[in-house]
Write a structure and sequence with these properties.
Blueprint: E1 4-8, E2 17-22, E3 25-29, H1 30-37, H2 41-54, H3 58-61, E4 62-68, E5 74-81, H4 82-92, H5 95-145, E6 151-154, H6 159-171, E7 176-180, H7 186-192, E8 200-205, H8 210-222, E9 226-230, E10 237-241, E11 245-249, E12 261-266, H9 270-280
Parallel strand pairs: 7-8, 8-9
Antiparallel strand pairs: 1-2, 2-3, 3-5, 4-5, 6-12, 7-10, 10-11, 11-12
Helix pairs in contact: 1-2, 2-4, 4-5
Length: about 280
């Protein structure tokens, strides 16, 4: 409970009293206690002093709350909890003390039950949220686990690892694959023909030999559609997946794993690169 105000009024009181409910107890200032017990503020102050000397600890029964005065300004005013209010009620021998204690205990019980219910509900909501977050994270992990890495380095004789990486990238294509590589042979085609069916493959290379032309023709009979075009503007090797993902590869595909090479997924606009390629072809 955080600084909630409940109105209290009995038949004997001419006006209502604003009671602060916080920290599982109720709080009144001196003026309110004087109004409750129909005594002057000076008398209430004397009883407060005696109670603090004889039975109560100030740190546990006194707190300051912000209150707005008649002049509209806000002041920090001392308030006293139910233990102090009951003690004063005994000292002034007021029936109002008994009535107020009964009312306050009921209010606190209701608030405790409401708070318990709210806490249980919030705990259930938090548990559900944690469960949902865990499921989402598990799904993300599963998705990420099925995606090829975005960069890496291979050393000599890591041929199988390099081939596996390339196969994983090729299999992600849904529509198109474009390879820019000036050294293409049947080994290159073997790698790229691991593509899914109906994925169009375009090879761009500076020289199209008779043997390459024959290899492409054979590949088309079993893994259509494969096209080869002459392209002399590139020095490096690039693999473009579905016109949106571009991999820069440090070795020709036919030589993967034979010597050290690196690959990187580029964070660039593939549309611009593809448009430039189309203009040059």
């Amino acid at each position: 409970m955080k600084n909630e105000i409940i109105l209290y009024q009995s038949k004997e009181l001419s006006s209502r009293i604003e009671v602060i409910v916080e920290e599982n107890t109720v709080w009144l200032n001196r003026k309110q206690i004087a109004n409750l017990f129909d005594r002057d503020v000076k008398t209430i102050g004397k009883h407060i002093g005696n109670a603090l000397k004889e039975e109560l600890k100030e740190f546990s029964v006194v707190a300051k709350f912000a209150t707005t005065a008649i002049d509209g300004k806000t002041y920090q005013t001392e308030h006293y909890n139910l233990d102090m209010i009951i003690s004063i009620g005994y000292r002034v021998k007021s029936k109002q003390g008994i009535q107020f204690r009964i009312w306050a205990n009921k209010v606190l019980k209701d608030h405790l039950l409401k708070g318990y219910s709210l806490n249980n509900r919030m705990n259930r909501i938090e548990d559900n949220m944690f469960s949902i977050i865990k499921k989402v994270n598990d799904i993300d992990l599963q998705i990420n686990a099925n995606l090829p890495p975005t960069q890496g380095v291979f050393f000599d004789n890591q041929v199988f690892d390099a081939y596996t990486l390339l196969a994983d990238i090729v299999r992600t294509a849904k529509k198109t694959i474009v390879l820019i590589d000036n050294y293409i042979n049947d080994t290159t085609l073997t790698h790229l023909c691991k593509k899914q069916k109906n994925v169009n493959l375009t090879l761009l290379t500076k020289t199209i030999s008779k043997q390459l032309h024959l290899d492409v023709k054979k590949a088309n009979t079993q893994y259509p559609t494969v096209a080869v075009k002459q392209f002399t503007k590139a020095h490096d090797r690039f693999l473009i997946i579905d016109n949106k993902e571009i991999y820069h590869i440090g070795a020709s595909l036919k030589d993967l794993g034979k010597k050290w090479f690196a690959f990187t997924k580029l964070d660039v606009n593939s549309v611009t690169i593809l448009k430039t390629i189309e203009e040059l072809l």
